[in-house]
Amino acid sequence: MKISKSKKVGIFLASVHVILVIQTVFNIVNAKKDDWPMMWMLFPFIDFPFSLIGVVLIGFISQFFDSINIHGINLLPYPLSDINNFILPFIMFGIFGTIWYFYLPQIISVHIANRGKQITVTDFFKKIITKK
């Protein structure tokens, strides 16, 4: 089975992103100061424009958890238990950001291949998902 060049590039970019996330989590766990939430500030820049959606969603979700007075998960050690400063950014940047980097080269490849053609949004995403 032959893997397309865009999928190979996506795997490479997603791997680099995972390495950055793992390094950030390692730095957060070993942080000596209380400013460890600032370590996530690299990801809104490298995950742009996807991170714009993420930052807004994190804001709404963290307000929800604050309104019901839930600030952490007791099963995990601090700082991993902090919902607003660790769990939500990890989900947004660590998981969804990595997925973004996996699909980004494929999105660009399908867009370039269909430049100048009329194509529906549904067909566009079908081509991205079924591309080998």
Through-space gap between termini: 8 Å
CA-based gyration radius: 18 Å
Order of helices and strands: HHHHH
What portion of residues belong to β-strands?
Answer: under 5%
Structural class: mainly alpha
Q: What's the multimeric state?
A: single chain
| Shape category | elongated
Instruction: State the helicity in percent bands.
Output: 55-70%
Please describe the biggest sheet, giving its number of strands, its sense, and whether it closes into a barrel. none
Note poorly predicted spans: none
Number of strands: 0
- Tell me the number of helical segments per DSSP (H or I, 4 or more residues long): 5
What average pLDDT do the residues reach?
A: 77
What does this protein structure show overall?
The protein has 132 residues and is mostly helical. It has a domain of 92 residues. The chain has five helices and no strands. The radius of gyration is 18 Å and the shape is elongated.
List keywords for this structure.
single chain; 132 residues; 0% strand
Concise synopsis of the structure shown:
Helix 1 (5-29) runs antiparallel to helix 4 (83-113). The mean pLDDT is 77. This protein has helices spanning 5-29, 43-46, 50-67, 83-113, 121-130.
Which secondary structure elements does this structure contain, and how are they paired or packed?
Blueprint: H1 5-29, H2 43-46, H3 50-67, H4 83-113, H5 121-130
